[in-house]
Amino acid sequence: MKFKVLGAALLSCALLLGCGDKAATTAKAPAPMVKIQGKTMGTFYTVTIPGTYEGGEEALRKISEEAFKEVSDAISTFDPNSEIARFNAFDSTEPFPISNYLADIIEEGNRQSLMIGGVMDFSVGPLVNLWGFGPEGRPEKVPSEEEISAVRAYVGHDKYELRRENGKAYLKKADPRVKLDLSTVGEGLGADLLAQKLDDKKVPAYMIAIAGAIRTKGDNPQGKPWKVGIEDPKGEGIYAAVCPLGDGMSTAGSYRNFFIDKETGKRYSHAIDPRTGKPIDHYTVSVTVIAPLTLITDALDTGLLVLGAKEAIEWGNKTDHAVYAIEMDKDGKAAASYSRAFEPYLKCQINNKR
User: What number of other Cβ atoms are within 10 A of residue 234's Cβ?
Assistant: First the structure.
């Protein structure tokens, strides 16, 4: 659901790295595990549990897809019966009743966004569509300043309001044209909800990967920390190996989803800066965040990508958040930087022995 750099590519990388080191692959018998794969939210997922799981693959698939459906029923913009789709179709400024689950998502997402200056905006969808990165397809030409200004009139944190009264929740539009898109946190929500369900069942270890959103717990089937990959922006495999160490991890990037203006040859990223209404134009192509929940990492990574590597890393150091950024210069050379809080997650590629 989210425009991410990693998608299915990271999913396969996560599986490859998560299964242990070279010594493990040469063992006589593979370590026991239960693993399922499938599609959800317009992307791919995989769930791996070392050892056994009661009911096997069938039971694991059932609980996984129930969790993903719960998320989709709340936030899918493709299902006209989802809560957010019905709110978007509500052509009124009267309060619209929503579930407390959806209210909690919006509240937490906005809380994280405000920590980084509001650059992650659930209402930015109309601008994304204007630039041709939404379901309406690519534009034939770059939008004019007048077109951008017209759409910005109903985009912004101040264009909708979340209310809670007597245990019930409501969303209210300041303009009937307001539409919210929560797909930027969809994969993280799915990973978090499934992790919660597995925790409730006392499952001691797992790795959940929904495209670029990863949740881990315990050790992999070889008894080592789960290891996942941050993709090389040049498409040359893995740029860095990371051990999430029981936390959530997600990456947002700009080097795959873009278009080039046929008249000017200029490249336009899908990552829209809500402050300008235009795609980002700096050299940062990838931002990875690690935090206890992938709702948090998903809410932060896109906004930090908009800010760019320098501001993202400065913010990570100032607030003690784990942030990793990759920049690519005009000659195609990539360079990474990361906050102090990210360092422990990188050490596993140097010392992964127990």
Answer: 14
